[in-house]
Specification:
CATH architecture: Orthogonal Bundle
Number of strands: 3
Number of domains: 1
Strand content: 15-25%
Largest sheet: 3 strands, antiparallel
CATH topology: Arc Repressor Mutant, subunit A
Strand order of the largest sheet: 1-3-2
Helix content: 55-70%
CATH class: Mainly Alpha
Amino acid sequence: MAIMSLLAASSELSFTEIRDTLSMTDGNLSVHLRILQENGYVGVTKTFRNRRPLTTCALTRQGRKSFEIYINLLGTIVKQTRFVEKSS
C-alpha cells in the first residue's frame, strides 16, 4: 500500500524515487511493482534520459479507482469503530 500511496500523490515517480523514499531494495521493489503491474494497478515505462535507463511508474485509471475505493473503505471502518467505542 505504500507504493500505491506514493503514486496516488504524484502523477508519476521514478523507480529510484520510490525505492529511496520507501527504503526498499531494488529486487523487493521490482517484485512489488511487477505484481501491481500484472494486476493492472500500475503502469511502468522504461525510457532513457541522458543515455541512462529511466523507469517511471504511475497509477493506471483502474489503480487510482481501486485505491480510492480502498481509502473510502478504511474511512468507513474508522467511523464505525469510533461509533462502537462511543456506544460502549
